[in-house]
Design a protein that fits this description.
Strand content of chain A: 5-15%
Structural class of chain B: alpha+beta
Oligomer: heterodimer
Largest sheet of chain B: 6 strands, mixed
Strand order of the largest sheet of chain B: 2-12-11-4-7-8
Radius of gyration of chain A: 19 Å
Mean pLDDT of chain A: 84
Largest interface: A-B, 59 and 60 residues
Helix content of chain B: 25-40%
Order of helices and strands of chain B: HEEEEEEEHHEEEEEHH
Distance between the termini of chain B: 96 Å
Strand content of chain B: 35-45%
Chain lengths: 308, 246
């Protein structure tokens, strides 16, 4: 069935995009990530104008993080105070990101910056995750005990002023790194069309030393708030959110996520992390190829003032 | 000098009315509505030649459909340290968003139409690029990229004569056709000499649900953005409810 997208201004096959939404939803449900890092490049690859792709992925991430947040909320696995502080930084970061997105697009360097950022972030996170998870698998096989979380250790982050207590995370840290982290990931998310969960989760664990059980819920709630804001900002500043495309992707995504979550529960944590690391590295490699391989046409067009 | 020219023009015009041909043309539709199931649309242009010999086999016809013009930035990627990036660009004002020329097969020299400023090579942005040597590859790239999307074309086998003085031609507007006011111009020639012309307008606009969404996104962007968020939250929440496991 063909459907005309009123903002992207082209006609698509509904089933193709339900399938893309479903496949990305399956993977995001399986690995507990938003899936923006997969969805945005896929949409661009299928011919959706990049500006529309980045802006339209934001409501899709809102939908997937809402359905996951609900279950974490019920199980009281969200640190609301930390979410609020992260999100207050995220508001600032998203606004800067949407402005940066517009500026980069007008000078024609959006593709390059997005490509380099994808390669840099996905490449490094994927490598770290792969090393960690393979290491964990080897240790599990050799039967050695896993090292306990070094919760008592402090780093320079814990020397900053404006300290406050986070009850659910059982932490007493400065609000400065929390707000800064929210701002940095919010900006990246708005420019790159991803929720940033795969950056937020390790940052909360390794930088702020948030206990693992509240990390995912807190990261999801943060993602929900910043991506909701990014949707409104993209809609008002760039007018490039396509609600029809978003609706198709959401429906595919939330259904796919349910099946993905079932598969995910059947796998061990380190196996999941190794698979996710391979997936992240594959996307980074594909984007890297795109930067170095000769393009189909060295010329590209942009209509002044258009969303495309 | 000036009154003399006017008088000469008047005489020529009167002669044209007296013995020359005139052209009547019409379109299959005077508006194209882009609705939710739009996959492109065919527009048929009909023309009839009046006032001349009815069985003259030497009539030559050219039909141009031209979309609203845009300012287009053409960027060129170059390799820098192995990475392809946009390094050079040219901006062309008034490039038509759609330009398709159909001409009958009996033009002895198709390039003769250039003297009437017809054809892709005669578009204003191409002619302005000719004055600036560096701009020509960019103008050519603009033509090539739009041709690849069927937005620009020149065809010389697309006009069907139903009778020596009646003809028809079909244009296709692809699904990603830009909206706006299109001009459909029909030109009649004999021996590459201009005889008569006629112009119709064609509106291409979003209709129905597509139009309402596009208008909301443009004119009431804040509400539109909030509706997108509400839809997303509802979809996510609803999925969480219906798939809730015991």
């Amino acid at each position: 069935v063909q459907l005309y997208l009123p903002i992207a201004e082209l006609t698509i096959n509904i089933f193709l995009f339900l399938g893309i939404g479903g496949a990305v939803g399956f993977l995001s449900g399986m690995f507990g990530v938003g899936g923006g890092f997969l969805l945005t490049p896929l949409l661009i690859f299928t011919g959706i104008p990049p500006a529309v792709a980045v802006a339209t992925v934001t409501p899709q991430i809102v939908a997937s993080s809402t359905s996951a947040s609900v279950s974490y909320w019920r199980r009281r696995l969200i640190d609301t105070k930390m979410t609020a502080l992260l999100a207050s930084g995220g508001v600032l970061g998203s606004a800067l990101g949407v402005l940066a997105f517009r500026a980069l697009r007008s000078v024609g360097q959006l593709d390059l910056i997005v490509g380099l950022a994808y390669v840099g972030f996905l490449g490094s996170i994927g490598t770290i995750m792969l090393r960690e998870s393979v290491g964990a698998m080897l240790r599990a096989r050799s039967g050695r005990e896993l090292a306990a979380r070094r919760s008592g250790q402090h780093n320079w982050i814990h020397g900053l002023p404006l300290k406050t207590r986070f009850r659910r995370s059982k932490l007493y840290v400065s609000i400065i790194p929390v707000v800064a982290l929210g701002a940095a990931i919010g900006m990246l998310g708005a420019v790159l069309g991803l929720g940033g969960g795969f950056l937020m989760v390790p940052a909360l664990i390794y930088v702020l030393r948030v206990p693992t059980n509240v990390v995912i819920g807190t990261s999801l709630a943060y993602t929900l708030i910043t991506m909701a804001l990014a949707t409104v900002l993209h809609a008002t500043a760039n007018k490039s959110v396509d609600i029809m495309l978003a609706a198709i992707l959401m429906i595919g995504g939330v259904v796919g996520a349910q099946f993905g979550a079932q598969v995910g529960q059947a796998l061990r944590g380190e196996q999941l992390r190794a698979l996710l690391a391979l997936l992240v590295l594959a996307v980074a490699f594909r984007v890297l190829l795109g930067l170095f391989l000769p393009p189909d046409s060295i010329y590209s067009l942009a209509v002044a003032g258009g969303a495309r | 000098m000036r009154p003399l020219l006017c008088a000469a023009a008047l005489v020529l015009a009167l002669r044209g009315v007296a013995i020359g041909e005139s052209l009547v043309s019409t379109l299959s539709d005077d508006a194209v509505e882009i609705t939710s199931n739009f996959t492109g649309e065919q527009i048929v242009v009909f023309g009839a030649i009046r006032g001349g010999p009815e069985d003259d086999p030497d009539y030559q016809v050219a039909v141009v459909v031209e979309g609203p013009s845009q300012d287009v930035v053409v960027r060129r990627k170059q390799r820098l340290l192995g990475v392809w990036l946009n390094l050079a660009s040219r901006t062309f004002a008034t490039a038509p968003s759609y330009y398709v020329l159909h001409r009958s097969v009996n033009f002895a020299d198709p390039s003769a139409l250039a003297q009437y400023r017809l054809g892709l090579a005669s578009l204003p942005f191409v002619r302005s690029a000719e004055e600036d040597a560096g701009a020509m590859p960019f103008a050519q790239a603009l033509i090539d990229l739009r041709s690849a999307h069927a937005l620009y074309a020149e065809r010389d086998d697309a006009i069907t004569f139903l009778a020596p003085n009646v003809f028809r031609t079909t244009f296709f507007l692809p699904s990603d056709v830009p909206t706006g006011e299109y001009r459909v111009s029909v030109y009649l020639f004999r021996g590459e000499g201009f005889l008569a012309g006629a112009t119709e307008t064609l509106r291409v606009e979003k209709g129905g649900f597509s139009e309402r969404i596009a208008r909301a996104a443009d004119q009431d962007a804040l509400t539109y953005g909030l509706v997108c968020v509400a839809l997303a939250v509802f979809t996510g929440w609803f999925a969480g409810v219906i798939f809730r496991r015991p």
